Amino acid sequence: MKLNYRPHSPLVAAALNILLAYAVYMLCRVAYVWENWTIFAQGWDNLNLWNIVRGGLRYDGAAIAYTNCLYVILMLLPVIAKEKSWWQTLCKWYFVVVNSLAVAVNLCDAVYSQYTGRRTTSTFFSEFGNENNLGKIFTTELLNHWYLVLAGAAMIALLWLLYTKPQGDLENAGSQDVRRRSRWTQSLALTLALPLTVVAMRGGIINTYRPLSLADANQYVNQPNEAAIVLNTPFSVIRTIGKSSFEVPHYFDDARMQALYTPVHLPDSSAVPTHRNVVVLIVESFGREYIGFYNRTLDDGTYKGYTPFVDSLLGVSLTWQETFANGRTSIDGMPAVLASIPMFIEPFFFTGYSLNKVSGIPGELSKIGYSSAFFHGADNGSMGFQAAARSMGFEAYYGRNEYDADSRFGGEADFDGTWAIWDEPFLQYFATKMGEMREPFVTAVFTASSHHPFVIPEQYKETFPEEELVMHKCIRYADHALRRFFETASRQPWYNNTIFVLTSDHTNMSNHDYYRSPIGLFRGPILIFDPSGQLPRGIRKGVAQQIDIMPTLLGILGYDKPYLAFGRDLMDTAESGWTVNYSGGIYQYLEGDTLIQFDGNNVTGTYNIVRDPLMKKPLKTPPSHHLQKLQAIIQQYMQRMVGDKLTVGQPPKE
Fold first, then answer.
1. How many Cβ atoms from other residues are within 10 Å of residue 290's Cβ?
2. How far is it, in rounded angstroms, from Cα 524 to Cα 600?
3. What is the pTM of this model?
4. Residue range 575-588: mean pLDDT, rounded
5. Sign of CA pseudo-dihedral 110, 49, 328, 66
6. What are phi and psi of 322, to 5 degrees?
7. How do 578-583 and 277-283 pair as beta strands?
8. Of 358, 513, 579, 592, which residue is most buried, by most CB within 10 angstroms?
9. Tens digit of pLDDT for each residue in 593-640?
10. Is there a cis peptide before residue 440, judged by omega within 30 degrees of 0?
């Protein structure tokens, strides 16, 4: 394909090619929305399309400026060599390759964002740096999303075929005076283009006090998850490379901050350790939507769910009316559940503050004689869990390596072929190994089978056939594996002296709008099961979140030392509870019926989630209590992260 008109001017050619890059970025955005339609469809009627396009062009301009600035220089540099055909061929290859990479990462993120709820940032490389199965996963996804592969190939073809080159060998065209004037023109163009490129990188002229940030995308949308439409992945990755994730805000002086909220927990004077064992089960992607017990009114009361065993377990356990995860990825869930640290801005263990001393459940209980172990059936080091477990105080780590070395179990025959040992055999291994530990012990297991690529063992394919979502059969298999685990555990001598906690790391696929809302995306189960019957059972009113698990367990165990946890003891019925999370540059804080959204500077939304569970009708005035409590939580979090004060000691210092 050839253009009918091929301009002589490198300036015009460069401008046309940059416009071509804009067009391709916008096509990637269309593909992103199409692939994630179920996530955005709920609020699509309320979206302002012009705002989306306007914001998208701003972010695309920044990404294009970052990735094509060298191309602009090469095209406008006033040197004789530039006028040679080989130079222009080099420019074309540079332009096509760089923008093809942008197409590839945008389309890959269209798939990956389904599991994270946001555009990918540079922390992706930390999260998956130890994985050796990414090639297989990538190949599987290429086959599953062949239509995106074709779309990407078509866009790359457009970049090549519609690329505009300056016409001919300009060195030999015209008089010396003409060539001299041309170079002066290009020098002037380059002089103007460079500051314009910087302006594009920063996102415009009016915000010269700081560059465009990921959080700024929220000004173009109604809900935090919709910010991903405005953003593009190259920008998200580039703008987070080498960046300090946390900045300390100054909402209050220290005295006022402490009065509003403190994460320091002081034991009751009458606390006496009970030395009961603790077992925490973190079930991959086990969203609350899949559990029939929590959804008795869903689908006009006809919804049964996919977890008959967990339903029965909830019938003899303690749970809460509203239960939430604090993050959207696996590495968010682990610190929230086991160290009471929510995810703000970026996953804690992939920030520069990951070497801070942490006050985790195993570390605290080790002070009163507990042994501890963490179990995860993937390769040792996968997802950074081994390092994270060590920093929280776990003494031992059992992964795929240790499982394979134990001749009592199936070894590599039980590997799922992608991520980890299948849940059923690994949970049997978990139950067996606890029988070899010194009591009292605290253990945690992180399951893996209810995860992409959404497969189950061959022998269960007829037992758990495909259903409405590919996740559903995996949830049924995970539920079955949990049943088998509790059957085995119930025969162990340590069973009746053990407190079990079951939760998820985060949520996953949904087919109900209630679970697609900005707060619905965080609805995960939390249950506490005491086989001895000493703890209360039933559904309590109020809100529970993952970061409440640590202080609740330490309270139940009669822990008699001060510690730091960002959550609260759920056994304290003096307050109904609250939950906090972060998504797409927006903090969400829910207490009672009211939820506020806050971008760090301003309240961006207020909702009554009882009257408006889908969050489509914002209220006009945010409650001052909600805002001040959230601001105090954020300030405490940032001060303690930056000041390495995540354990009890001196007050945080900036």
1. 29
2. 25
3. 0.76
4. 90
5. positive
6. -125, 125
7. unpaired
8. 579
9. 999 999 999 999 999 999 999 998 999 888 899 999 999 999 999 999
10. yes
Reported as a single tens digit per residue, the pLDDT across 178-201 is: 455 566 666 777 777 777 888 888
Q: Token pair for residue 577?
A: 């509870």
State how far the Cα of 394 lies from the Cα of 443, in Å rounded to an integer.
8
Tokens of 254: 């220290």
Tell me the domain boundaries of the chain.
10-238, 254-263+280-642
CB atoms within 10 A of CB 127: 19
Residue of 231, 233, 214, 20 whose CA lies nearest to 106: 233
CA dist., res. 428 & res. 309, Å (int): 16
Distance CA 386, CA 375 (A): 9
SS3 (DSSP) at 580: strand
Which residue type is seen at 394? F
25, 219, 234, 308 from 447: Cα distances, Å: 37, 38, 32, 18
> pLDDT per residue over 74-111, tens digit each?
888 877 666 678 888 899 999 999 999 999 999 988 88
DSSP secondary structure, 565-603, as one string: -SS--TT-TTS--EEEEEETTEEEEEETTEEEEE-SSSE
Q: Which tokens go with 12?
A: 């015009």
42-71 average pLDDT score: 82
Instruction: Say how many residues make up the chain.
Output: 654
3-state secondary structure of 559: coil
User: Please, which residues bridge with residue 514 across strands?
Assistant: none
Phi-psi region for residue 644, left (φ > 0), alpha (ψ -120 to 50) or beta? left
- Non-local CB neighbours of 610 within 8 Å, separated by 6+ positions: 593
546 residue type, one letter: Q
Sign of the torsion angle spanned by Cα atoms 107, 111, 114, 115: negative
Fold of 254-263+280-642: Alkaline Phosphatase, subunit A (3.40.720)
Q: Is 117 left (phi over 0), alpha (psi -120 to 50) or beta?
A: left
Cβ–Cβ < 8 Å for 440, 372: no
Give pLDDT tens digits for 126-161: 555 555 666 666 777 777 888 999 999 999 999 999
What's 320-377 look like in SS3? EEEEECCCCCHHHHHHHHHHCCCCECECHHHCCCCCCCCCCHHHHHHHHCCEEEEEEC
Positive or negative CA dihedral for 191, 193, 194, 198?
positive
H/E element holding 27? helix 10-35
**CB-based burial label for 247 (10 Å; 0-12, 13-18, 19+):** exposed
Strand partners, 323: 544
Asked if omega into 613 is within 30° of 0 (cis), the reply is no
Phi and psi of 450, rounded to 5°? -85, 65
